[in-house]
Design goal:
alpha/beta; Rossmann fold; 2 domains; eight-stranded mixed beta sheet; five-stranded parallel beta sheet; 13% strand
């Protein structure tokens, strides 16, 4: 059975199934299609499915032209009918893994997907979880559900974990060129998963188990979370000392060894760093451990939006103005520059905090013309068009995301007060007295 699977993979004759056609799943679809195999995408959102089948993309870095080409080639189909999960030879699970309000892992989407697969699971299929999660999820959560089908892992079907490593907006690496870590439940599962990913990915990195692959992704994101917390804390300290943290980081980064630059901001955003380390700290408690570095880093990063609002309040107060009743424009809704992804964006919390404080808030973001309902937020706002007259109407402009197409000199020229959380105004020549770093 394994040899038959490997032969189909090596000859590009198998069918790949991708569950979840968002920022992780859709780039995978693109690479497998480019690799020469057919792909069947699954999503519970009928609007997404209809959009894709009509050749329309809803993700900025995957143009509609690419979607049209994939559909017209006959190599890509999309559906919300999960009864078709019996068709693919390999099923890649790319669904959300958020946190609950108690900061515990929410496996709702993973479990629901596993149950859908179990209903149609057939001999010879490979199932791979890509959703970032805590070590042990594939074995302890996904496997028991799949085996309710009556089939046995390693004998009747294959199971693996391969963490997604998407970084929207990055130019120097793509889904194809970022090395793919893969851990199989057993040696046959690993062999099947390697053969599957080698169709679409340049470099596949095998590890000894699903647990090791899960831990790999958690380590990557925890490393970043802790280092970002460090510079966020130093930002607050250096601000009190009258030192510019961005100047210090730039100087330290000239050392050719022993230092990797990380940068402060208004809070953490995206689908990984604000969430994944808490998976590990939750799991650690089951082993009688407290992960103090992770907990402390989380506290610091979670507190950053309130720090930014306090800086804004004090800056307005210095100008004889209260935050309550003030008009504030938030620049940038996405969690980082030049993308259209707002998941876990600190801008959303900044807007809610400003509303709580009684401010009148608008936002501008060239990549997000209007907000949409999310798990935690439903702001019901639309992006305001930038102009000199419009900027002059606000008591403060808060730069939350430093999109490349913003003209920051123009913004400073026409704003009364600028709160800069990204060092976006570093090149501004005029009006520096209006700028407050936060």
């Amino acid at each position: 059975m394994l040899q038959q699977f490997l032969k189909a993979a090596h000859s590009h004759k198998g069918l790949i199934g991708v569950v979840g056609l968002g920022y992780v799943g859709l780039p995978l679809v693109r690479e497998f299609v480019r690799g020469g195999v057919k792909v069947l995408g699954f999503d519970v959102d009928q609007k997404k499915v209809r959009s894709l089948l009509a050749g329309r993309s809803y993700i900025k870095h995957i143009p509609s032209k690419i979607i049209k080409e994939m559909v017209s080639s006959g190599r890509f189909d999309a559906t919300d009918n999960f009864g078709r999960l019996k068709q693919p030879d390999c099923i890649l699970i790319c669904v959300p893994t958020p946190l609950t309000k108690m900061r515990e892992p929410d496996m709702t989407y993973v479990k629901a997907t596993a149950r859908s697969i179990a209903k149609t699971l057939r001999k010879g299929q490979l199932v791979v979880l890509e959703s970032t999660t805590y070590p042990g999820t594939t074995r302890q959560v996904v496997l028991p559900i799949l085996e309710t089908s009556g089939l046995k892992v390693g004998k009747d079907f294959y199971l693996a974990f391969s963490p997604e490593r998407e970084d929207p907006g990055r130019k120097n690496y793509t889904t194809r060129t970022i090395p793919k870590v893969v851990g199989g439940y057993d040696k046959n599962s690993l062999a099947a998963a390697r053969a599957c990913y080698e169709i679409a990915i340049d470099t596949v990195v095998p590890v000894s188990s699903c647990d090791a692959a899960e831990a790999c992704k958690i380590l990557e994101n925890t490393y970043r979370c802790i280092n970002i917390a460090l510079v966020n804390e130093l930002k607050i300290l250096f601000d009190r000392m009258g030192i510019d943290i961005w100047e210090v980081i730039a100087a330290a980064a000239t050392k050719p060894f022993g230092f990797t630059p990380f940068y402060p901001g208004p809070g953490l955003g995206g689908h990984c760093i604000p969430i994944d380390p808490f998976y590990l700290s939750w799991k650690a408690r089951q082993y009688g451990m407290t992960t103090r570095f992770i907990e402390l880093a989380g506290e610091i990063n979670v507190a950053m939006p309130r720090y930014v609002i306090n800086k804004l309040m004090h800056s307005l107060n210095d100008r004889g103005k209260a935050l309550k009743g003030s008009k504030v424009l938030v620049l940038g809704l996405t969690y980082k520059k030049d993308i259209d992804d707002v998941r876990e964006s600190p801008s959303l919390e900044l807007i809610e905090l400003l509303h709580e404080k009684g401010a009148r808030v608008d936002y501008n973001d060239p990549y997000c013309p209007r907000t949409h309902k999310m798990r935690e937020y439903d702001l019901k706002m639309a992006s305001r068009k930038l102009s000199a007259a419009m900027l002059k109407r606000y008591d403060a402009v808060l730069i939350s995301t430093d999109h490349s197409n913003y003209d920051f000199q123009f913004i400073v020229d026409n704003a009364r007060l600028v709160i800069d959380t990204r060092n976006a105004t570093k090149g501004v020549k005029r009006g520096r007295r209006k700028i407050v770093k936060a």
